[in-house]
Amino acid sequence: MERGKTFKLAAASVFAVLSLGIMKGGAAAPAREVSPAAAVDQFAQKCALCHGKDGHGLPSWKAKGQPDFTDAQWQKGHTDAQIAETVRNGKGKYMPSFKGKLSEADITAVVAKVRSFGKKN
Ligand code: HEC
Predict the structure, then answer these.
(1) Is residue 56 lining ligand 1, measured as CB closer than 6 Å?
(2) Angstrom distance (rounded) from CA 71 to CA 78
(3) Is 68 found in the same domain as 47?
(4) Shared domain check, 65 and 7
(5) Which of 91, 106, 113 to mutate to test the pocket of ligand 1 (most atoms within 8 A of CB)?
(6) Is 16 in the same domain as 40?
(7) Does 96 sit in the ligand 1 pocket, CB within 6 Å?
(8) Separation of first and last alpha carbons in the chain
(9) Are residues 25 and 73 in the same domain?
(10) In 11, 61, 79, 96, which residue has its Cα 20 to 30 A from 108's Cα atom?
(11) Ligand 1 mean position to 107 CA, how many Å?
(12) What is the structure's pLDDT at 31?
């Protein structure tokens, strides 16, 4: 009797440790997708070629009306919603639309990135 009970207890704790391990692995995966590093990558991959890694913009594009994201006046004059709208639908002749190319989460992340350029100065 006593031995049977001990065996059952041991088996139960092995099972508990195993399933804890599986749960841990499952929970870690989605957290990685929304890491800040991924947000930095979206801007670096899709925006930096025109806006520069530092958000200042490039001379050839500035001549076509591109703003400097580090400019405090520009930051004050635009809401998050306006920036998100520009990313979704594009602006003027040269700023492309990212509709279908960036998810809403990605757009939120690049808006935060655009904002971060204003905070450095
Ligand atoms: C092909 C070059 C190019 C790429 C790529 C590009 N932009 Fe632009 N962007 C421009 C130009 C040019 C303007 C100025 C448009 C105008 O005012 O006519 C602009 C304007 C903007 C503005 C200002 C809009 C306003 O109302 O003043 C924001 C915000 C912006 N871009 C964000 C982004 C983000 C975020 C990305 C990446 C997802 C991106 N851009 C990718 C060229 C680009």
Answers:
(1) no
(2) 11
(3) yes
(4) no
(5) 91
(6) no
(7) yes
(8) 74
(9) no
(10) 61
(11) 13
(12) 44
